[in-house]
Prior knowledge:
Elements: E1 2-4, H1 9-19, E2 25-28, H2 49-52, E3 59-62, H3 68-79, E4 83-86, H4 92-95, H5 100-106, E5 111-116, H6 131-137, H7 161-181, E6 186-190, H8 191-198, H9 200-212, E7 243-247, E8 258-262, H10 268-274, H11 289-292, H12 296-306, H13 312-320, E9 326-328, H14 332-336, H15 339-344, E10 347-352, E11 356-361, H16 384-390, H17 395-404
Parallel strand pairs: 1-2, 1-4, 2-3, 4-5, 5-6
Antiparallel strand pairs: 7-8, 8-9, 10-11
Helix pairs in contact: 1-7
Amino acid sequence: MIDFTGVQAGPSCTQMLAWFGADVVKIELPGKGDVTRGQLRDIPDQDGLYFTMLNSNKRSLELNTKTVEGKKILEQMIVGADIFVENFAPGALERMGFTWEHLHELNPRLIYGTVKGFPENSPYNDLKVYEDIAQCAGGAASTTGLVDGTPLISAAALGDSNTGMHLLIGLLAALLHREKTGKGQRVYMSMQDAVMNLVRVKIRDQQRLERTGELTEYPQYPHTPFSDTVPRGGNASGSGVPGWMLKCKNWQTDPNDYMYIILQPWGWEHVCAVIGKPEWVTDPAFATQDARKSHIFDVFDAIEAWLADKDKHEAVEILRKLEIPCGPILTTKELLHDPSLRENGSIVEVEHKGRGSYLTVGCPPKFSAFTPKITGSPLLGEHNHEILVGLGYDDAQIADFKEKGVI
Length: 407
């Protein structure tokens, strides 16, 4: 497959296909490559982790597709490809002459995947979209943050990698369709659509709000009037059962000594017993979930008082035995060095020709029939000769391409 993408949304998709066994050839600008090779470097003159962690298991071909020869080489590759993926700005690839219609004519079985910021008919589709902008445009930012605070951007890549995973699903569906029909097709994936798909529960809440004028599971209820749009809910679970982020004993010195707890209707007796409030089981103000809504922060305050002498791991160990849904706030450091995640292949160590070994996220799906082997990302143009020889070019022609700046 041909990977004509850069930065994160496209490369996350094509990397997953490479992990699944696809031969992914990454097309890069000669002498420069993907911009993330040089971004946020931690080792001078070596590819940054931003690049290596999104481009493992691929081959790299430097190619200037603005040259006549470069266009011809890309067209040759397209003729023999199964999938072609790009995430250029709207209209950029078409101006090069690589319209969907032209690619489909070259290879009717080709599946063409494209990532853009907005749907094709959007009034915003000429905007250059980045991760944060996608989160804002998809409804995530307006519904994230403290109740009385500003909209917040999630650290999770809801706009980029999430879009890449949505495109991956579309490409796999298109492959199945081609198996049945023999025909390729274009798969258009917008970042706005991908974010909205993950914000569907908030879109659910918008419709409920328009019908009833209130959202009883939000922390504003019943004390603060609702406006006409879904508010920011702080750390409320949003699932219809109360949940909140609570401080543990070391929170003043450890900014991540917190845990999250969800209070299901069943098991309320266990919660009351463990925090030393057995009278709440029969107290009309606390006995039912509906009754607790107006007193929910009294409940959370009582749990937090119980947590005052326990760190997040100690607390979770106690509550899990009572089947009370909860979890510790795990840091990136804890995840990176978690032995179980290493054992499961969720965090893997990879060797790289330039920078040595580094850690990266492993393949999220775990298969019973095979285990994806993650290899280092390619050096810029590492496979120029190998790929061009495979297309039928000899050493003299390849040297000429180099001299002309085609590769």
